[in-house]
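Entry 12.
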Amino acid sequence: MNLVVGDIETSENNVNMLSVLEASFVIYDERFKELESFHESARIRPTCVPSLGACLTTGIRTDKLVGANNSSFELATKIHSTLSKWGSYCTIGQNFIAFDNEALVRMFHKSLIPDIWLLKKLPKKMMDTLFLARASKLIDNKSLNCEVSPKGSDLFKLESLCKMNGIPHENSHSSAGDVHATALLAKLIKERVPKLWEQGLKIAHKMDAKKFIESNKIVSHVAYFYGKSRWYGLKFCFYNNFDYARLWDLRVSPEDYLNLNYQDLKKELSKTPKVIRTVKPSKFDICMDYSYAFNFEPYSKIGEAELRRRATILDSNPKFIELIRTIDNDSIEEKQTMDQTELIPEFRLYKDGFASKKDEETMKLFHKMEWKDRAKLFDRWENKKYAWFNKVLLFEERPELLSKSVFNEVRDEFSKRLHTTEDVNWHTFPKFAKELVDYGTKFEKEKDEKKLQLLNEYDSYVTEMEKKFPKP
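Predicted 3D structure (tokens):
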């Protein structure tokens, strides 16, 4: 199966509100021979305040923020067109599943592209070198060399893994440089831990991962927290309302829990360490066959015979499993009921679910139209968030085509968002001002004139931006 290695660089780290500034994708055959590549950059969205931390990390100057050849919308359509044209493949990247893909999905969503789940649809699959690297180290400690943090944890950042394993990493924190390095890291993992690579491909899609969990019943799961990777020997129980697999940790015998009532069982299940653990089939949670966990403590001390006996007890008590499922889903519903926050359109991707057939058809029509005709669609959308995205796209791309009332509507909404002093999940003018002071103090102490000049450039850019979005 061909592989597409991808990476994006962004204006901040909130996937709902960021602007994609660079995108690189390279398609390889199964032997990592490069077949074709895509490298493009975009201007920052005019409604998006850049994060100084993100820009200083990537080294993107303000002239590139405003002078790239593509707008954000143009970049979105080019990425989608290229990835569609390349056919069937497995996408792979470093922390790609949790960040890059989520950012791309939202970029497509706000660009009114119907097929936002392009990379997650069979026969396409998706893996992540971050998860593979952690599992590689757990399976074979000699497979990868890792730097160790002051707290004694192995470090799995791309730059660190490249340095420790002799992987060339030119232009780090550029999308093109990171794609090349990620491909070499993936190739190294495939060569050194081939069984992990083969298993990764088997669970690289949600439906395949679910089949593996359901057919094996007992699986070895790689969990990572507090800077450590750990094996867990788990017995599959059910899927909850989020479609996450919920599994019993076989280090604990279920016998002491079988006769508990709803309230007592709920109390016991809430204690740590958790008896019921979660595997997210859609997030490339690494699951191997039972033998991996069973060969490590505490499972190796308990012994396979006892572990299988515990699994049999769970199979023999379906009412107990159903009670756990009820407790689990009740807890989800309680949290959803308590959270009455009204989400702005950009944060409603999962809450609203899939677009209606009518809205999908309107999206297709939108992309066939000239810009001058796209304002005619404002009243056509069933879900009003798409009407908002429609207006924002014209505001960002062709503001002269908007009526004065619609222009003011969009400008005033962004003015309110960008000037807010509340603790919101996007970058604002007050947050930028604080960053400017903090980094300015740091660079003055370091007497770093180049970075101080960079701060002045970003400050000038944001000052001009504030004039376009006056304080409410």
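Annotation: The chain has three domains: 3-195, 207-338, 346-468. The CA atoms of residues 223 and 230 lie 5 Å apart.
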